[in-house]
Amino acid sequence: MNDYIRIKVKRQDGPSRKPYWESFKIDYHPGMNVISCLQVIQTNPENEKGKKVAPIVWEANCLEEVCGACTMKVDGTVRQSCTALIEKPNKTVVLEPMDKFPVIRDLWVDRARLFETLKKIHGWTTIDGSHDLGLPPLQIDEIQQIEYKLSTCMTCGCCVDACPQFTYMPTEKEFAKGFVGAFGIGQVARFNTHPIGKIDADKRLDAMMGTGGIGECANSQVCVEVCPKDIPLLDAIARVQRQITKRMVTKSLGKGY
To answer: What is the pLDDT of residue 257?
Structure first.
């Protein structure tokens, strides 16, 4: 008997449809990952009972843990499926969509809330054109290393899906009320460290002091456990908390307006 892999998928035929479980059995080959298993099933979408079914739907792009698109729960842990290796044959791998985002279909979820969060925290640097602005300000190596690590965030959603303070909110109207999550705070730390980005630091800190800001972080620390890029999110949260304290003092003295 050939070595096999059983893929058990939590499926959903549409946003308003009820989820259900379906299993698929495929031949095992060394070096397989979750995405390659899904691709094999896609070529012949036949479940374990031998019934032809609709192909499994998931999201993916780079397949090398850079884009962040293929996030899903693998055996109960949220992670990037492109780097989730199938290390042993003759076992069952359970795949589920992320819990905190609306399901579009099967393993594909709507991550719009993440990108709305970047708008909320002003996650970009402001310049007045693409003309020659001269040499940028010099940065010491320590700051460069901090900023680089924060810049590796893929907006994949792992940290917020694991976070107990980040709750399910299906509509854009609700997004503004929800917790921004560790990735959002990390991007505040990143852009407030950047020589040009810090021009808008006060805007970001004011957003962090409002609804859904850093005050809702309960320091559960699960974000650092699931981050595929090992971003020092706890350090970023502490950094932003210190900046907020200074901002509050400045505003109370009437100098922040």
So the answer is: 42
Token pair, residue 154, equals 């893929």
Q: Tell me the C-alpha distance between 105 and 108, whole Å.
A: 5
- Six token digits for residue 246: 């200074």
What tens digit of pLDDT does each residue of 9-43 get?
A: 999 999 999 999 999 999 999 999 999 999 999 99
The domain 111-252 having CATH identifier 1.10.10.60: the answer here is no
CA–CA distance, 109 with 111 (Å, rounded to integer): 6
Q: Nearest 5°: CA angle at 78, between 115 and 154?
A: 35
Q: How far is CA 65 from the centre of its chain?
A: 12
- CATH assignment, 4-105: 3.10.20.30
64, two tokens: 């090398």
In contact, 161 and 222? CB cutoff 8 Å: no
Integer angstrom CA distances of residue 105 from 2, 10, 55, 63: 32, 10, 11, 20
Query: What's the count of helices (H) and strands (E) in the chain, helices before strands?
Result: 9, 7
Handedness of CA 4, 10, 14, 19 (dihedral sign): positive
Domain boundaries, the chain: 4-105, 111-252
**In angstroms, rounded to a whole number, what is the distance separating the alpha carbons of residues 103 and 157?**
14
Give the tokens for residue 120.
Answer: 């909320």
**193 Cβ contact list (under 8 Å, min separation 6):** 143, 146, 147, 150
Please give the model's pTM, rounded to 2 decimal places: 0.91
DSSP sequence for 132-159: ---SPPP--HHHHHHHHHHHT----SHH
Nearest to 98 by CA among 143, 34, 160: 160
What single-letter DSSP state applies at residue 18? P
